[in-house]
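[Q] Does anyone have a clean structure-token version of this?
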Amino acid sequence: MGKVDLVRFESADALAQAAATAWLNSLPKTGPHFAAFSGGRIAARFFDAITSEVRARNTTLAHVDFFWGDERCVPPDDPESNYGLMCSRLLVPLKVPQDRVHRIKGELEPAAAAREASAEFASVVRPVLDFVFLGMGEDGHIASIFPGDAMEEPPTEFYRPVVASKPPPRRITLAMHTMVAVRNACVLASGSGKGEALRKSLGGASTPLGQLLQRRGFTWIFTNVSP
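[A] Here you go.
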């Protein structure tokens, strides 16, 4: 297993604020910077913390290219849309330029949405993402890669369609090899019921998070649960 820096927090709000501060402190003053974000219960707090701190610093994210770790196969205005969540909490409030926003088109047929997202990723990102922020589910899933996923991924496809084990089932996810190659990966493991999955993943179990940790050289984990 690669090196893991596990940082514990007393609350989800403290976790979200620390992740926002760590990311903003890492940003170059000018671009490019390529980052991908996932949804999940911690995401709203995380996006709010980024927005508040960007405003407090009187700075801008106009040089950041925004991608998604995964997306549900729903229209962008659907309450289940990961894009919609970030749009309302961060992209619109901070007036991020539209040409910096590379959403997954969940309203398309899944295979077509994945192909289009992969093509856009390949045309923009040079050579790999600078950051990916991932949540973790009670079963150890990350992005929309769930336990039992065979992960048969062509190296030229950065995203792929999946059928998840929780609703909504049809989703698009970053491929595991894409997440392994990212310069900086930060897992935000927040919420009750996740301690066992985190413990198993850290112990070398073949959960999706465990496989990521085994294949990467270094990963941050910010958590408010005890593994």
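[Q] Thanks! Anything notable?
[A] Residues 18-174+190-214 form a domain with the Rossmann fold fold (CATH 3.40.50.1360).
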